[in-house]
Design goal:
Layout lengths: L1 H11 L9 E3 L4 E7 L24 H5 L6 E4 L8 E6 L5 H9 L4 E7 L15 E4 L6 H11 L5 E4 L10 H4 L5 E2 L6 H16 L2 H9 L15 E5 L3 H12 L3 E5 L12 E5 L3 H10 L2 E4 L13 H5 L5 E5 L8 H10 L2 E6 L19 E3 L10 H19 L14
Parallel strand pairs: 2-3, 4-5, 4-6, 6-7, 7-8, 9-10, 9-12, 10-11, 12-13, 13-14, 14-15
Antiparallel strand pairs: 1-2
Helix pairs in contact: 3-12, 6-8
Protein backbone atom coordinates (compact mmCIF):
# COMPACT_ATOMS: atom_id res chain seq x y z
CA UNK A 1 0.00 0.00 0.00
CA UNK A 2 2.82 2.40 0.85
CA UNK A 3 4.49 1.81 -2.50
CA UNK A 4 1.23 2.44 -4.37
CA UNK A 5 0.58 5.66 -2.47
CA UNK A 6 4.14 6.78 -3.13
CA UNK A 7 3.54 6.33 -6.84
CA UNK A 8 0.30 8.26 -6.54
CA UNK A 9 2.03 11.18 -4.84
CA UNK A 10 4.73 11.13 -7.50
CA UNK A 11 2.16 11.14 -10.31
CA UNK A 12 0.29 14.08 -8.78
CA UNK A 13 3.45 16.18 -8.87
CA UNK A 14 4.03 15.51 -12.55
CA UNK A 15 2.35 17.02 -15.63
CA UNK A 16 -0.12 14.87 -17.52
CA UNK A 17 0.66 13.51 -20.96
CA UNK A 18 -1.12 11.87 -23.81
CA UNK A 19 -0.61 8.16 -24.30
CA UNK A 20 2.87 7.24 -25.41
CA UNK A 21 4.40 10.59 -24.40
CA UNK A 22 7.64 10.26 -22.45
CA UNK A 23 7.67 12.39 -19.30
CA UNK A 24 11.10 13.37 -18.08
CA UNK A 25 11.79 14.28 -14.49
CA UNK A 26 15.09 14.51 -12.69
CA UNK A 27 14.66 11.06 -11.20
CA UNK A 28 12.37 9.18 -13.53
CA UNK A 29 11.41 8.56 -17.13
CA UNK A 30 7.74 7.62 -17.23
CA UNK A 31 4.90 6.99 -19.63
CA UNK A 32 1.31 7.68 -18.70
CA UNK A 33 -1.08 5.20 -20.26
CA UNK A 34 -4.82 5.16 -19.66
CA UNK A 35 -6.82 1.96 -19.86
CA UNK A 36 -9.71 0.25 -18.09
CA UNK A 37 -9.98 -0.59 -14.42
CA UNK A 38 -11.38 -3.97 -13.46
CA UNK A 39 -14.19 -3.41 -10.92
CA UNK A 40 -12.99 -6.17 -8.59
CA UNK A 41 -9.35 -5.13 -8.36
CA UNK A 42 -9.64 -2.05 -6.15
CA UNK A 43 -11.05 -2.86 -2.69
CA UNK A 44 -14.32 -1.02 -2.11
CA UNK A 45 -13.37 -0.34 1.50
CA UNK A 46 -10.10 1.35 0.57
CA UNK A 47 -9.33 4.25 2.89
CA UNK A 48 -7.78 6.20 0.04
CA UNK A 49 -10.50 7.57 -2.34
CA UNK A 50 -8.01 7.65 -5.20
CA UNK A 51 -7.63 3.89 -4.92
CA UNK A 52 -11.22 3.49 -6.12
CA UNK A 53 -10.37 5.12 -9.44
CA UNK A 54 -6.72 4.47 -10.27
CA UNK A 55 -4.27 1.64 -10.06
CA UNK A 56 -0.54 1.88 -10.76
CA UNK A 57 2.04 -0.63 -11.88
CA UNK A 58 5.81 -0.31 -11.61
CA UNK A 59 8.00 -2.34 -13.98
CA UNK A 60 10.81 -3.47 -11.73
CA UNK A 61 12.46 -5.53 -14.47
CA UNK A 62 12.94 -2.47 -16.65
CA UNK A 63 14.06 -0.40 -13.67
CA UNK A 64 16.67 -3.02 -12.79
CA UNK A 65 18.10 -2.98 -16.31
CA UNK A 66 18.25 0.80 -16.47
CA UNK A 67 15.39 1.03 -18.95
CA UNK A 68 12.40 3.30 -18.71
CA UNK A 69 10.33 3.17 -15.56
CA UNK A 70 6.72 2.93 -16.69
CA UNK A 71 3.80 4.30 -14.76
CA UNK A 72 0.47 3.03 -16.01
CA UNK A 73 -2.63 4.99 -15.13
CA UNK A 74 -5.82 3.00 -15.38
CA UNK A 75 -9.06 4.89 -15.82
CA UNK A 76 -12.49 3.47 -16.72
CA UNK A 77 -13.29 6.54 -18.82
CA UNK A 78 -10.60 5.74 -21.38
CA UNK A 79 -11.73 2.21 -22.23
CA UNK A 80 -12.74 1.65 -25.85
CA UNK A 81 -12.83 -2.13 -25.98
CA UNK A 82 -11.88 -5.17 -23.92
CA UNK A 83 -8.93 -7.23 -25.15
CA UNK A 84 -9.66 -10.96 -25.23
CA UNK A 85 -6.45 -12.77 -26.10
CA UNK A 86 -5.54 -16.12 -27.60
CA UNK A 87 -1.89 -17.13 -27.41
CA UNK A 88 -0.63 -19.23 -30.33
CA UNK A 89 2.35 -20.66 -28.49
CA UNK A 90 3.70 -23.61 -26.58
CA UNK A 91 1.69 -23.82 -23.32
CA UNK A 92 5.02 -24.20 -21.51
CA UNK A 93 6.29 -20.94 -23.02
CA UNK A 94 7.32 -18.54 -20.25
CA UNK A 95 5.63 -15.76 -22.19
CA UNK A 96 2.27 -17.20 -21.20
CA UNK A 97 3.23 -16.96 -17.54
CA UNK A 98 4.16 -13.32 -18.05
CA UNK A 99 0.86 -12.72 -19.85
CA UNK A 100 -1.26 -14.33 -17.17
CA UNK A 101 0.51 -12.44 -14.37
CA UNK A 102 0.78 -8.94 -15.81
CA UNK A 103 -2.10 -8.19 -18.18
CA UNK A 104 -3.53 -4.70 -17.72
CA UNK A 105 -7.12 -4.15 -16.71
CA UNK A 106 -9.46 -4.40 -19.65
CA UNK A 107 -7.78 -7.53 -20.98
CA UNK A 108 -7.76 -11.24 -20.31
CA UNK A 109 -5.97 -14.30 -21.63
CA UNK A 110 -8.57 -16.80 -22.84
CA UNK A 111 -6.20 -19.65 -23.58
CA UNK A 112 -3.04 -20.95 -25.21
CA UNK A 113 -2.31 -23.61 -27.79
CA UNK A 114 -0.22 -24.60 -30.77
CA UNK A 115 -3.05 -25.58 -33.14
CA UNK A 116 -6.57 -24.53 -34.01
CA UNK A 117 -8.29 -27.46 -32.28
CA UNK A 118 -6.99 -26.31 -28.91
CA UNK A 119 -8.94 -23.05 -29.25
CA UNK A 120 -12.34 -24.61 -30.08
CA UNK A 121 -13.66 -23.98 -26.56
CA UNK A 122 -13.23 -20.22 -27.05
CA UNK A 123 -15.36 -19.83 -30.19
CA UNK A 124 -18.20 -18.22 -28.22
CA UNK A 125 -15.87 -15.79 -26.41
CA UNK A 126 -15.21 -13.58 -29.47
CA UNK A 127 -11.42 -13.23 -29.03
CA UNK A 128 -10.07 -10.10 -30.69
CA UNK A 129 -6.29 -10.33 -30.11
CA UNK A 130 -3.91 -13.09 -31.19
CA UNK A 131 -0.47 -13.29 -29.56
CA UNK A 132 1.98 -15.39 -31.62
CA UNK A 133 5.23 -16.79 -30.27
CA UNK A 134 8.11 -18.53 -32.10
CA UNK A 135 7.61 -21.37 -29.61
CA UNK A 136 4.66 -22.55 -31.73
CA UNK A 137 6.30 -25.21 -33.93
CA UNK A 138 3.87 -24.85 -36.86
CA UNK A 139 2.94 -21.18 -36.60
CA UNK A 140 3.14 -20.63 -40.38
CA UNK A 141 0.54 -23.35 -40.95
CA UNK A 142 -1.71 -22.66 -37.98
CA UNK A 143 -1.92 -18.86 -38.03
CA UNK A 144 -4.09 -18.56 -41.19
CA UNK A 145 -6.33 -21.34 -39.86
CA UNK A 146 -6.86 -19.60 -36.53
CA UNK A 147 -7.58 -16.26 -38.21
CA UNK A 148 -10.09 -17.88 -40.57
CA UNK A 149 -11.84 -19.64 -37.69
CA UNK A 150 -11.99 -16.51 -35.52
CA UNK A 151 -13.13 -13.57 -37.68
CA UNK A 152 -13.48 -11.47 -34.52
CA UNK A 153 -9.68 -11.16 -34.21
CA UNK A 154 -8.71 -7.54 -34.89
CA UNK A 155 -4.98 -7.60 -34.22
CA UNK A 156 -2.06 -10.05 -34.34
CA UNK A 157 1.09 -9.42 -32.31
CA UNK A 158 4.26 -11.43 -32.96
CA UNK A 159 6.61 -11.85 -30.00
CA UNK A 160 9.76 -11.54 -32.09
CA UNK A 161 11.39 -9.01 -34.39
CA UNK A 162 11.44 -11.30 -37.43
CA UNK A 163 8.16 -12.55 -38.87
CA UNK A 164 9.64 -14.92 -41.45
CA UNK A 165 8.51 -17.92 -39.38
CA UNK A 166 4.83 -17.04 -40.03
CA UNK A 167 4.90 -15.49 -43.51
CA UNK A 168 2.93 -17.45 -46.12
CA UNK A 169 0.81 -16.84 -49.20
CA UNK A 170 -2.32 -17.54 -47.15
CA UNK A 171 -1.36 -14.96 -44.52
CA UNK A 172 -0.58 -12.28 -47.10
CA UNK A 173 -4.19 -12.48 -48.30
CA UNK A 174 -5.58 -11.71 -44.84
CA UNK A 175 -6.06 -8.01 -44.17
CA UNK A 176 -5.50 -7.60 -40.43
CA UNK A 177 -3.23 -5.29 -38.41
CA UNK A 178 -0.03 -7.00 -37.30
CA UNK A 179 2.79 -5.82 -35.03
CA UNK A 180 6.09 -7.24 -33.80
CA UNK A 181 8.57 -6.82 -30.93
CA UNK A 182 11.06 -4.72 -32.88
CA UNK A 183 13.47 -2.88 -30.61
CA UNK A 184 13.52 -5.43 -27.80
CA UNK A 185 16.53 -7.30 -29.20
CA UNK A 186 18.57 -4.50 -30.77
CA UNK A 187 20.81 -3.59 -27.86
CA UNK A 188 22.27 -7.06 -27.38
CA UNK A 189 22.83 -7.54 -31.11
CA UNK A 190 24.57 -4.18 -31.39
CA UNK A 191 26.89 -5.18 -28.54
CA UNK A 192 27.60 -8.45 -30.33
CA UNK A 193 28.51 -6.50 -33.47
CA UNK A 194 31.09 -4.39 -31.67
CA UNK A 195 32.44 -7.47 -29.91
CA UNK A 196 32.85 -9.20 -33.28
CA UNK A 197 34.64 -6.16 -34.73
CA UNK A 198 37.02 -6.09 -31.75
CA UNK A 199 37.52 -9.87 -31.95
CA UNK A 200 39.20 -9.49 -35.32
CA UNK A 201 40.73 -6.04 -34.77
CA UNK A 202 42.64 -7.24 -31.70
CA UNK A 203 43.21 -10.75 -33.08
CA UNK A 204 41.73 -12.47 -30.04
CA UNK A 205 42.29 -16.00 -31.45
CA UNK A 206 46.05 -15.33 -31.44
CA UNK A 207 45.84 -13.83 -27.98
CA UNK A 208 44.12 -16.90 -26.57
CA UNK A 209 46.60 -19.26 -28.24
CA UNK A 210 49.52 -17.35 -26.77
CA UNK A 211 47.94 -17.39 -23.33
CA UNK A 212 47.36 -21.12 -23.51
CA UNK A 213 50.97 -21.67 -24.62
CA UNK A 214 52.27 -19.23 -21.97
CA UNK A 215 53.90 -17.33 -24.80
CA UNK A 216 54.74 -13.65 -24.09
CA UNK A 217 54.96 -12.26 -27.63
CA UNK A 218 53.85 -8.75 -28.48
CA UNK A 219 52.07 -8.07 -31.77
CA UNK A 220 50.41 -5.13 -33.47
CA UNK A 221 46.64 -4.77 -33.18
CA UNK A 222 44.17 -2.73 -35.17
CA UNK A 223 41.71 -0.15 -33.86
CA UNK A 224 38.13 0.55 -34.84
CA UNK A 225 38.44 4.33 -34.75
CA UNK A 226 38.42 5.67 -38.28
CA UNK A 227 37.28 2.39 -39.84
CA UNK A 228 34.11 2.14 -41.92
CA UNK A 229 31.16 0.04 -40.81
CA UNK A 230 28.76 -0.85 -43.63
CA UNK A 231 25.27 -1.88 -42.52
CA UNK A 232 23.09 -3.96 -44.85
CA UNK A 233 19.54 -3.43 -43.60
CA UNK A 234 19.21 -0.18 -41.69
CA UNK A 235 16.24 -0.92 -39.48
CA UNK A 236 16.08 -0.91 -35.69
CA UNK A 237 18.98 -3.35 -35.22
CA UNK A 238 21.10 -1.65 -37.85
CA UNK A 239 20.55 1.72 -36.25
CA UNK A 240 21.50 0.33 -32.82
CA UNK A 241 24.75 -0.94 -34.35
CA UNK A 242 25.40 2.48 -35.88
CA UNK A 243 24.82 4.19 -32.55
CA UNK A 244 27.49 2.09 -30.82
CA UNK A 245 29.90 2.25 -33.75
CA UNK A 246 29.61 6.03 -33.72
CA UNK A 247 30.87 6.04 -30.12
CA UNK A 248 33.91 4.04 -31.26
CA UNK A 249 34.67 6.73 -33.82
CA UNK A 250 33.77 4.62 -36.84
CA UNK A 251 32.43 5.99 -40.11
CA UNK A 252 29.03 4.48 -40.91
CA UNK A 253 27.38 3.84 -44.26
CA UNK A 254 24.17 1.90 -44.72
CA UNK A 255 21.88 0.19 -47.18
CA UNK A 256 18.08 0.22 -46.95
CA UNK A 257 15.08 -0.16 -49.23
CA UNK A 258 13.92 3.40 -48.61
CA UNK A 259 17.09 5.46 -48.12
CA UNK A 260 15.15 8.74 -47.92
CA UNK A 261 13.86 7.66 -44.51
CA UNK A 262 17.41 8.06 -43.18
CA UNK A 263 18.21 11.33 -44.93
CA UNK A 264 18.66 13.10 -41.59
CA UNK A 265 20.20 10.19 -39.71
CA UNK A 266 22.79 11.47 -37.20
CA UNK A 267 25.11 8.46 -37.53
CA UNK A 268 25.38 7.66 -41.25
CA UNK A 269 27.53 9.59 -43.69
CA UNK A 270 25.74 7.88 -46.60
CA UNK A 271 22.64 5.72 -47.05
CA UNK A 272 22.27 3.78 -50.31
CA UNK A 273 19.38 1.91 -51.89
CA UNK A 274 19.22 -1.86 -52.16
CA UNK A 275 20.10 -2.21 -55.83
CA UNK A 276 23.02 -4.40 -56.86
CA UNK A 277 25.33 -1.50 -57.65
CA UNK A 278 24.77 0.10 -54.24
CA UNK A 279 25.38 -3.18 -52.41
CA UNK A 280 28.68 -3.74 -54.22
CA UNK A 281 29.68 -0.17 -53.47
CA UNK A 282 29.02 -0.64 -49.77
CA UNK A 283 30.98 -3.91 -49.77
CA UNK A 284 33.96 -2.22 -51.44
CA UNK A 285 34.00 0.76 -49.04
CA UNK A 286 33.54 -1.05 -45.72
CA UNK A 287 36.17 -2.45 -43.36
CA UNK A 288 33.44 -4.19 -41.38
CA UNK A 289 30.10 -5.25 -42.86
CA UNK A 290 27.14 -6.17 -40.68
CA UNK A 291 24.05 -7.70 -42.27
CA UNK A 292 20.86 -7.11 -40.29
CA UNK A 293 18.38 -7.43 -43.16
CA UNK A 294 15.22 -9.53 -42.75
CA UNK A 295 14.59 -12.59 -44.86
CA UNK A 296 12.09 -11.66 -47.57
CA UNK A 297 11.46 -12.55 -51.20
CA UNK A 298 13.59 -9.56 -52.20
CA UNK A 299 16.50 -10.12 -49.80
CA UNK A 300 17.11 -13.87 -49.98
CA UNK A 301 20.52 -14.46 -51.52
CA UNK A 302 21.13 -10.75 -52.07
CA UNK A 303 24.68 -10.88 -50.64
CA UNK A 304 26.00 -13.20 -53.34
CA UNK A 305 29.28 -14.08 -55.06
CA UNK A 306 29.37 -10.75 -56.90
CA UNK A 307 29.04 -8.88 -53.62
CA UNK A 308 31.84 -10.85 -51.99
CA UNK A 309 34.00 -10.35 -55.09
CA UNK A 310 33.62 -6.59 -54.58
CA UNK A 311 34.58 -6.72 -50.90
CA UNK A 312 37.38 -4.55 -49.56
CA UNK A 313 40.64 -6.34 -48.78
CA UNK A 314 40.82 -7.66 -45.19
CA UNK A 315 37.18 -6.79 -44.51
CA UNK A 316 35.20 -8.62 -41.82
CA UNK A 317 31.65 -9.84 -42.46
CA UNK A 318 29.08 -10.12 -39.66
CA UNK A 319 25.63 -11.68 -40.09
CA UNK A 320 23.06 -11.28 -37.33
CA UNK A 321 19.91 -10.85 -39.44
CA UNK A 322 18.82 -14.00 -41.24
CA UNK A 323 20.91 -16.76 -42.82
CA UNK A 324 19.09 -16.97 -46.18
CA UNK A 325 20.02 -13.36 -47.00
CA UNK A 326 23.56 -14.62 -47.60
CA UNK A 327 24.88 -16.98 -50.27
CA UNK A 328 26.72 -19.20 -47.78
CA UNK A 329 28.73 -21.00 -50.45
CA UNK A 330 30.04 -17.68 -51.76
CA UNK A 331 30.82 -16.55 -48.21
CA UNK A 332 32.70 -19.77 -47.47
CA UNK A 333 34.76 -19.40 -50.63
CA UNK A 334 35.60 -15.76 -49.84
CA UNK A 335 36.83 -16.83 -46.40
CA UNK A 336 38.93 -19.67 -47.80
CA UNK A 337 40.41 -17.48 -50.55
CA UNK A 338 41.40 -14.78 -48.08
CA UNK A 339 39.23 -12.10 -49.66
CA UNK A 340 37.66 -11.71 -46.23
CA UNK A 341 39.76 -11.40 -43.10
CA UNK A 342 37.06 -13.18 -41.16
CA UNK A 343 33.38 -13.58 -40.41
CA UNK A 344 31.21 -13.59 -37.29
CA UNK A 345 27.99 -15.50 -37.87
CA UNK A 346 25.01 -15.83 -35.56
CA UNK A 347 22.50 -16.99 -38.18
CA UNK A 348 22.61 -19.61 -40.93
CA UNK A 349 20.53 -20.95 -43.80
CA UNK A 350 20.04 -24.20 -41.90
CA UNK A 351 19.77 -24.22 -38.12
CA UNK A 352 21.13 -26.00 -36.18
CA UNK A 353 24.22 -25.76 -38.38
CA UNK A 354 24.93 -29.30 -39.71
CA UNK A 355 28.11 -30.86 -38.33
CA UNK A 356 29.39 -31.43 -41.87
CA UNK A 357 29.17 -27.72 -42.71
CA UNK A 358 32.61 -26.39 -43.60
CA UNK A 359 32.09 -23.26 -41.49
CA UNK A 360 32.86 -25.29 -38.37
CA UNK A 361 36.42 -25.90 -39.52
CA UNK A 362 37.45 -22.41 -40.68
CA UNK A 363 39.88 -20.68 -38.32
CA UNK A 364 38.76 -17.21 -39.38
CA UNK A 365 35.11 -17.72 -38.46
CA UNK A 366 33.43 -16.93 -35.14
CA UNK A 367 30.24 -18.98 -34.81
CA UNK A 368 27.35 -18.61 -32.38
CA UNK A 369 24.13 -20.67 -32.28
CA UNK A 370 21.66 -17.86 -33.10
CA UNK A 371 21.63 -16.72 -29.50
CA UNK A 372 23.24 -13.29 -29.48
CA UNK A 373 19.90 -11.67 -28.64
CA UNK A 374 18.99 -14.36 -26.13
CA UNK A 375 19.59 -12.49 -22.89
CA UNK A 376 18.29 -13.75 -19.57
CA UNK A 377 15.39 -11.29 -19.78
CA UNK A 378 14.70 -11.11 -23.54
CA UNK A 379 11.53 -13.21 -23.37
CA UNK A 380 9.96 -11.15 -20.62
CA UNK A 381 10.99 -7.87 -22.23
CA UNK A 382 9.46 -8.87 -25.56
CA UNK A 383 6.26 -9.88 -23.77
CA UNK A 384 6.26 -6.71 -21.68
CA UNK A 385 6.35 -4.63 -24.83
CA UNK A 386 3.07 -6.26 -25.82
CA UNK A 387 1.57 -5.91 -22.33
CA UNK A 388 2.73 -2.44 -21.38
CA UNK A 389 2.97 -0.69 -24.73
CA UNK A 390 0.66 -2.07 -27.41
CA UNK A 391 -2.09 -3.71 -25.40
CA UNK A 392 -3.09 -0.45 -23.64
CA UNK A 393 -3.11 1.26 -27.04
CA UNK A 394 -5.46 -1.38 -28.40
CA UNK A 395 -7.74 -1.11 -25.37
CA UNK A 396 -7.85 2.68 -25.66
CA UNK A 397 -8.26 2.78 -29.44
CA UNK A 398 -4.84 4.31 -30.13
CA UNK A 399 -2.40 3.58 -32.96
CA UNK A 400 -0.33 0.45 -32.40
CA UNK A 401 3.47 0.49 -32.34
CA UNK A 402 5.70 -1.55 -34.68
CA UNK A 403 3.27 -2.34 -37.52
CA UNK A 404 4.53 -4.95 -39.97
CA UNK A 405 3.40 -6.05 -43.41
CA UNK A 406 3.28 -9.82 -44.06
CA UNK A 407 3.34 -9.17 -47.81
CA UNK A 408 6.71 -7.44 -47.50
CA UNK A 409 7.99 -9.85 -44.86
CA UNK A 410 8.79 -7.26 -42.19
Amino acid sequence: MKSIRALQRLSCSMPTARIGTKIHTKRNFMTSVQCMQAPTVIPSDSADPAMKTYKYWNREEYKRKGRYDYLIKISPESIIKEAKILSLSDPEDEANVALSESLPFGSKLLGTGTKLEEFDQFRDHSPNVLFVSPSCPKAREQLPLVLAAFPTIEWVHVRSAGIDFIVSDELSEIDIPMTNAKGQFSSSLAEYTMMACSYFAKDLPRLMKQQKAKNWEKYDVDELRGKTLGIVGYGDVGRACAKLAHVYGMKIIALRRKPKLSALDPYCTAVYGTDKKSLNRLMSESDYIVCSAPSTVDTRGMVDADAFAAVKEDAVFINLGRGPVIDENALTQALKDGRLKGAALDVFCEEPLPVENEMWTLDNVLLSPHNMDQTSTFMHEATEFFVYENLPRFICGKDLMNPVNPKEGY
